[in-house]
Amino acid sequence: MKSLSASASVKFIKLFVYFCYFVSLNISAAETKSPDFIEGVEKVSAEGIINLIEQIDELIIIDSRIQGDRHKGYLESSVSLPDAETNCQSLSKVIPRYDSAALFYCNGIKCGRSVVAIDIAKKCGYTKLYWFRGGFDAWMKKGFPFIKR
């Protein structure tokens, strides 16, 4: 009987270790701090977004957050494309040309979803990319208007 319970204990410990390992692999991009800059991408502030909207008629704004975050509100005319669903095919449906201006955002500096999405966009060949590092948190703190449903 002792060997059976020892065997069960070993199995439990192995399962626990595997569980911890997979949980650590799945730490969301939303929980990581974003870098200060992304090479080849122009970082913009909340006010910078307003300038871009005024200067670029066909600016595409991509919300890289998950749907649960989007329910809290989002930038007007932004397209929901969570980072986990971002790939060359999904981007081609939203961004018509590789040289189209596209701005990515997520929740803020502690959110890495827009960084992940931009990295994918760069690898797909998109060249005119903008990044709102401050994200939706900074937008709301400025008191700028947003859509909430």
Q: Nutshell version of this structure?
A:
By secondary structure, the chain is α/β, with parallel strands linked by helices.
Structural description of this entry:
The chain is an alpha/beta fold and 149 residues long. It has a single domain (30-141), classed as Oxidized Rhodanese, domain 1 (3-Layer(aba) Sandwich). 43% of the residues lie in helices and 11% in strands. It has six helices and five strands. It has a five-stranded parallel beta sheet with strand order 1-5-4-2-3, covered by helices on one side. The radius of gyration is 20 Å and the shape is globular. The model is unreliable at 14-30 (pLDDT under 50).
Topology diagram in text:
Layout: H1 2-25, E1 42-43, H2 46-55, E2 60-63, H3 67-70, E3 78-80, H4 88-94, E4 102-105, H5 113-124, E5 129-132, H6 135-141
Parallel strand pairs: 1-5, 2-3, 2-4, 4-5
